[in-house]
Amino acid sequence: MDLFCYAFKNNKGELESPFLEYLEKYAIEKTDSEEKKRKKVKKIMNIKAHLEYLFTNNGKYDLPPIVQKYKNREIGILKIKESDKLIRIAFFTKIDKQIIFLNAFDKPKLYEKGKKQKVDKMIEKILDQVENFKLNFLKDKLYIPLNI
Amino acid sequence: MKTKKYSNIFTEAEKHPKAKIYLEDAKARIRLAEAIHKERTYQSLSMADLAEKAETTPAVISRIEHAQVSAGIDIITRIFLALGKTELKLKFA
Predict the structure, then answer these.
(1) CB-closest option in A17, A26, A81 to B68
(2) Is A2 on the interface with B (CB under 8 A)?
(3) DSSP string spanning B41-86?
(4) pLDDT digits over B42-65, tens only?
(5) N or C: which end of chain A has fewer CB within 10 A?
């Protein structure tokens, strides 16, 4: 299996990936303190371990409780729990032998007021992306390889 | 088509001296989570059932099954004994 990230053409004409955009917040900056770097590394390695777990299981949609199928759709949800208050959610799908990460976001475990609607809207947007993406995946080559 | 520039966060993080340890720790948590979840569901036990048998709380079982925390050997032993297991086989690599 190969890992890819869904991408779209942004208004600058570049390929942009929501999943890679999400990961950028963990990018180590030169200005980060040693402690901040260490914390970021720990989080990144936790994400990597989860991605590898999915990879070694051939992108199965059903590996509870870490991977679950989203309703009856061809979409998997990879859950990376950070604490009791935070779960990182990564949406992925499979096309042939490719696992494609669509998007990711942080979901507060205990929904704060108004956040649930925001999360639900995001999920619906992702589902629309998937439908369009699957139709145009091969034709438009809208993807970026993910190297872990 | 040109691709927007992204950092390779994984490659960068791997340069850190503790990266390998953190990765192995996370993988071990996932393997343990998988082993407990599989056995618990095979025995049709809820998290609350298992927690009661292992004299812990459902929240602790949930955290372990979500690979969220590093469980101590004491709690791991109690969980596996509660599942009727006297042996634990875990792959470390």
Answers:
(1) A81
(2) no
(3) HHTT--HHHHHHHTTS-HHHHHHHHTT-S---HHHHHHHHHHTT-S
(4) 999 999 999 999 999 999 999 999
(5) N
**B22 closest CB neighbour out of A9, A12, A41:** A41
Is position B88 within any domain? no
Domain ranges in chain A? Answer: 2-145
Inter-chain residue contact B66 with A20, CB threshold 8 Å: no
User: B54 to chain A, minimum CA–CA distance in Å?
Assistant: 20
Model confidence, pTM: 0.87
- Tracing tokens 């599989």 back to the chain, one arrives at B38
Q: Are B4 and A15 in contact (CB under 8 A)?
A: yes
Structural domain includes residue B1: no
Cβ of A83 within 8 Å of Cβ of B68? The answer is: yes
Question: Does residue A51 carry a pLDDT above 70?
Answer: yes
Number of domains forming the structure of chain B: 1
State the ipTM, two decimals.
0.89
Q: What is the CATH number of the domain that holds B46?
A: 1.10.260.40
Cβ(A75)–Cβ(A130) below 8 Å: yes
Q: Give yes or no for a contact between A22 and A7, defined as CB atoms under 8 angstroms apart.
A: no
B68 within domain boundaries:
yes
The answer to whether B41 contacts A63, with C-beta atoms less than 8 Å apart, is no
A42 touches chain B (CB under 8 A): yes
Residue B51 located in a structural domain: yes
Q: How buried is residue B75: exposed, middle or buried, by Cβ count under 10 Å (0-12/13-18/19+)? A: middle
